[in-house]
């Protein structure tokens, strides 16, 4: 994350006392991430992650996000369980904001994923899709094409140009493109933000999928295209073909894509690229100067849009 909110030692101890997890031993703010405040909590019994929900999260969505974690974890997916408080509540209010305690999972996020790691992630993503289909709650995607266009409008040409002078022109064709309808594609409850920093791994084994706060009911192909756009490019922007094909093979080892999904992947990936340009631009213009957070560059995804536009579906064959 980031740590947007300061919680003192007494506040944390009082908060942790509402859970049957032992006594607080230590609490450290976690610097990774951009959306919420997170602390690594150590108690006399175990380790946990305490999350305070800061941005883009509606209180009404928390039962969906936290319930999905419990549903997937119960089905054997490598997902942290929600720790419920002594009254059975999955989240509590603290200093006017919602907080939840979740299970700590071991592992580290890959910074330069190997093909074998991508294959494992692809397979676990397909397993998550299969396991999430009978989750009984639903949530609409709030980062769809129309939502992105509205946010970009709010950022304004000047705002976008202040991030990089080339950004407005680079995304103009993406903004003009017609939205594709994903409603007829096979659906599940999807992660929708499965970047390497939201996956914990030990070697090639996936030990944790975390940060489900963009999860929604939507097309499984959207999740696969998002994971592809997030995992398969080098720091210099070059496409890593061996990582891309391993991700696809891993996914299809657990769930075969339907031809109509495969045919649309490049178009969906372009929509995904615009979605991350949008949220990154919004965050860039919005982040408080004193927040302990590293801003993410919208230009990376403007370039990925160009890549998918240029290469089309040949990327996914
Ligand atoms: N269940 C977990 N187990 C272990 N570490 C976690 C867990 N959840 C979060 N983290 C750590 O906290 C960091 C930020 O969490 P994340 O949910 O990605 O925050 P944000 O929503 O702000 O992006 C992760 O990069 C990881 O290091
Ligand atoms: N994965 C997104 C950023 C979303 O933030 P997260 O810290 O909640 O994963 C991006 O890379 O733009």
Would you mind describing this structure in some detail?
The protein has helices spanning 9-16, 62-74, 115-132, 145-163, 167-176, 220-231, 241-254, 259-286, 298-311; strands at residues 24-29, 37-43, 47-52, 82-83, 92-94, 97-103, 187-190, 199-202, 205-209, 216-219. With 317 residues, the chain is an alpha+beta fold. Strands 1, 2, 3, 4, 5 and 6 form a six-stranded antiparallel beta sheet that branches. Strands 7-10 form a two-stranded antiparallel ribbon. Helix 4 packs across helix 8 (259-286), helix 5 crosses helix 9 (298-311) and helix 6 runs antiparallel to helix 7 (241-254). The longest helix has 28 residues, at 259-286. The protein starts with 8 loop residues before the first helix and ends in a 6-residue tail after the last helix. It binds adenosine-5'-diphosphate and the ligand N[C@@H](CCOP(=O)(O)O)C(=O)O. Adenosine-5'-diphosphate (ADP) binds next to strand 6.
| Rounded Rg | 19 Å
Indicate the proportion of strand residues.
Answer: 15-25%
Pairing-aware structural class of the strands and helices?
alpha+beta
CATH architecture of the largest domain: Alpha-Beta Complex
Q: How many strands, which pairing sense, and closed or not: the largest β-sheet?
A: 6 strands, antiparallel
Number of strands: 10
Helicity level, as a percent range?
A: 40-55%
Report the CATH C-level class of the largest domain: Alpha Beta
For the record, give the distance between the C-alpha atoms at the N and C termini, rounded to a whole number.
36 Å
The gross shape turns out to be globular
- Output the number of helix runs: 9
CATH overall fold name of the largest domain: Aminoglycoside 3'-phosphotransferase, Chain: A, domain 2
Bound molecules: adenosine-5'-diphosphate, ligand LJ64HWYM
């Amino acid at each position: 994350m980031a740590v947007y909110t300061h919680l003192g030692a007494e506040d944390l101890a009082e908060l942790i006392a509402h859970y049957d997890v032992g006594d607080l031993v230590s609490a450290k703010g976690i610097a990774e991430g951009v959306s919420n405040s997170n602390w690594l909590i150590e108690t006399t019994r175990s380790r946990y992650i305490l999350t305070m929900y800061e941005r883009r999260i509606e209180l009404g969505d928390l039962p969906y996000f936290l319930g999905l974690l419990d549903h997937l974890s119960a089905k054997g997916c490598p997902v942290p369980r929600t720790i419920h408080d002594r009254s059975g509540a999955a989240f509590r209010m603290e200093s006017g904001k919602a907080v939840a305690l979740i299970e700590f999972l071991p592992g580290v996020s890959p910074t330069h994923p190997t093909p074998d790691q991508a294959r494992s992630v692809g397979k676990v993503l397909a397993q998550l899709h299969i396991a999430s289909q009978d989750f009984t709650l639903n949530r609409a995607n709030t980062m769809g094409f129309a939502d992105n266009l509205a946010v970009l409008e709010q950022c304004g040409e000047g705002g976008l140009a202040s991030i990089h002078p080339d950004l407005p022109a680079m995304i103009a064709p993406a903004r003009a493109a017609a939205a594709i309808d994903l409603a007829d594609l096979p659906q599940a409850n999807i992660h929708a933000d499965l970047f390497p920093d939201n996956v914990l791994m030990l070697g090639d084994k996936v030990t944790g999928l975390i940060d489900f706060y963009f999860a929604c009911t939507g097309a499984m192909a959207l999740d696969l295209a998002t994971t592809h756009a997030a995992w398969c490019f080098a720091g210099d922007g070059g496409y890593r073909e061996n990582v891309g094909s391993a991700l696809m093979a891993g996914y299809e080892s657990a769930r075969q894509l339907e031809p109509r999904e495969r045919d649309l992947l490049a178009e969906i990936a372009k929509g995904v690229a615009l979605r991350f340009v949008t949220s990154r631009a919004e965050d860039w213009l919005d982040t408080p100067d004193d927040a302990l957070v590293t801003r993410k560059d919208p230009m990376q995804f403007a370039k990925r849009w160009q890549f998918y536009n240029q290469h089309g579906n040949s990327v996914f064959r």
